[in-house]
Specification:
homodimer; 410 residues; alpha/beta; Rossmann fold; Rna Polymerase Sigma Factor, Chain: A; 3 domains; seven-stranded parallel β-sheet; 43% helix; globular
Chain lengths: 410, 410
């Protein structure tokens, strides 16, 4: 089959977990997809391998130094986009499908641009929906762009809603409980990075794995369910399901429950998003020919105070979730750099969440403003409030002046 | 609401397990259904209570003596149908919905007649589909009659297929494994009636509970799946799921599985069949707010030789399943009467299945012929082949003459 019949694909974050899995799916779907563009932050070593295999016409490296380094060895038939500005240009490439595998809020700008140039977004990023869902869906509607969620729980629900009539009374997403589910609460302060990153079922990026352990990730997914499908919060439940085989369930008012399951392998929802509305053939299958057990139990909310905090934020101000997400991204980076303790994540987020000015959002740029604001405040707080931040002294001080708390202009 | 707006319902087998559950559902759905007719075999004591509560216009008692007994005390505004002939007349009552709760092959004649007079059959009986599925569906199509399966596994699959696109690669129904799943094979010959009737999850009729323990019931359901939905046998799997919460699963070719579950309570599928296409409100719900575990494991076919035998029969001659069903009904009656051992069920069925003449079916009456033939042969074999049949001597003798084995005319 000629490349003309193949679907053009851009992969944002091609050397990350989602990116690699996407390229695996594309490799296994020979003749169906043509990788026209690859975009990474820094990992030019793996990018070079991917370029060799997939021969994209466009490549983007966001980190300027890495971009310059790559440029020297790059075939001059390939167009290279460099830095943040380059990422924005890369996002204007017309394509059939874009895989959005960039993690965190960094995905928002390329997504908002690319929504206007791509026919379909395979969206793995959840922060964009959590902090800017309204903008994202409005833009997608305006440009007729399909958004297919790749995140397993949201993907499973998308699959269910794509089939069933919507006369349900409750929707459940499952939570593995994360790496720390069997630790006692009092032992959490001693937990190291390695323990937190030992997710029982999924191999994912580092930040999302930490967010699984705090259940911030699950609270984000509840918000995604609300934003994607318009399900009221009181009709969204979470059940702890350690085996991560079932991803979403829909309960009808007669007690019947429909559910969607697949083995915990991101290639399955990625293949779904790429092949939709068809289904990709799998070598696996026969899941229920084997012997296995599954468990379901309610979430112990007392054990996961950040779950409640994030959902409280969802029902609060326009900027609450932006603040919490930026704070979470920052503080998790500090934890992953070995600079603070696991339990400090909650402490810092709780402080920031108790001390931010409530503001309405009028335009997309406001999101970036509050994101930056919260990152700065989080770092200041970390430096000034007695947390053990490697290589720096610490002292306690209230970093919020009265003026800042109430008077920042948009 | 006046009775004019209510759906008219006939309940066949109203004092049996399905019948009672149906009347419970109707009682809970006040103002929706009007019970116009009740039909029982013998249990006039419970029937009288039901008449008092539901004031049906028509009543049918199949057992002649019981019918005569009831007649003496019956309000003369109620029309009574008596005996087998009466049942056939009762089956011609025009109605919106008929609940077919008669067990065994006895359901076939009323079903075939009633299909022409009812708009919808809520079908709990499986023997009719197993032995006469082709006739039943042909007739239903001709008269535009809906058949909604009530049997939980088939009902769950009906619900799934009623929603999903049919691009599946495999269908699974679940099996509780029956009351004897944890007994060793060598201990089965000592098993008594009480043990066999102690089904872990479902309260059902006595024969079906025995059929659960032998897995004959599950083999019948596999045949039902084939007949109801046209799924090829090689695409139908069975998974032992002791908790009976999940009833059916559909696996797509990308390894995604959709499933349908509800608590093991027959009122749920009955309510589904009565309220369809709406869903009945339930007081329950929130199933996944609780803590529980589920298990799935492959069927140990070696442990359930009758499962294989019934499925072998499905792929064999036109009359194979009629023979096996009639033999099963007869021999289970003997077991339930304490006349033979549990393990004799297999022995007798194996003998009959190895010694019947293969014949084509040309008309519906052929079904009744072979049903009767197999019952007679089974009883003869039981009497003459050394089984302990209470109150009668036994001697071994080949009951099939060469002529009978090959030459019975239809």
């Amino acid at each position: 089959m000629g490349k003309g019949n193949m679907k053009k694909v851009l992969v944002f974050g091609s050397t990350g977990s989602i990116g690699k899995n996407s390229l695996d799916v594309i490799r296994q779907s020979q003749g169906k997809f043509n990788v026209v563009g690859l975009c990474v932050n820094r990992d030019i070593k793996n990018l070079q391998r991917q370029i060799k295999e997939f021969s994209p016409a466009y490549v983007c490296v966001v980190d300027q130094r890495c971009a310059d380094k790559l440029e020297k060895n790059l075939d001059n038939k390939i167009r290279l986009f460099k830095g943040e500005k380059g990422l924005q240009k890369f996002s204007t490439i017309k394509t059939d499908i874009s895989v959005m595998g960039i993690s965190g809020i960094s995905c928002l700008r390329p997504l908002l641009i690319n929504l206007q140039y791509s026919k379909r977004i395979a969206l793995a990023n959840k922060e964009t929906i959590v902090v800017a869902g309204l903008f994202v869906f409005k833009l997608a509607k305006k440009f007729g762009t399909e958004i297919i969620p790749v995140d397993s729980e949201i993907n499973a629900l998308f699959q269910l809603f794509n089939n069933i009539k919507r006369d349900f009374s409750k929707v459940y997403i499952t939570a593995s409980g994360g790496a720390l589910i069997d630790y006692k609460k009092q032992d959490l302060k001693k937990i190291g990075i390695k323990e937190v990153l030992s997710h029982p079922n999924w191999r994912m990026g580092r930040r999302i794995t930490v967010d699984c352990a705090t259940l911030v990730n699950k609270a984000f997914e509840v918000i995604e369910v609300h934003r994607f499908f318009g399900v009221p919060y009181k009709e969204i439940g979470v059940t702890v399901h350690r085996e991560s085989v079932f991803h979403a369930l829909v309960e009808f008012k007669d007690s019947t429950v429909f559910s969607c399951c697949y083995p915990p392998d991101m290639k399955i929802p990625i293949a779904y998003a790429l092949h939709y509305p068809r289904r990709a053939p799998s070598v696996r299958g026969g899941s229920f020919d084997k012997k296995f057990s599954l468990s379901f139990e309610p979430v112990n909310y007392n054990r996961y105070p950040l779950f409640k905090m994030v959902l409280d934020a969802a029902g609060k101000d326009d900027n609450s979730l932006i603040i919490l997400n930026a704070c979470d991204e920052t503080v998790v980076d500090y934890f992953l750099a070995g600079k603070i303790k696991f339990t400090d994540i909650y402490k810092v987020m709780n402080y920031i969440f108790s001390n931010y000015p409530s503001k309405r959002l009028r335009r997309i740029e406001d999101i970036f403003y509050w994101d930056q604001w919260a990152r700065t405040k989080t770092k200041e707080y970390l430096l000034n409030s007695g947390f053990r931040v490697k290589g720096q002294g610490s002292r306690k001080k209230n970093i919020f002046t009265k003026n800042q708390k109430s008077g920042i202009k948009l």
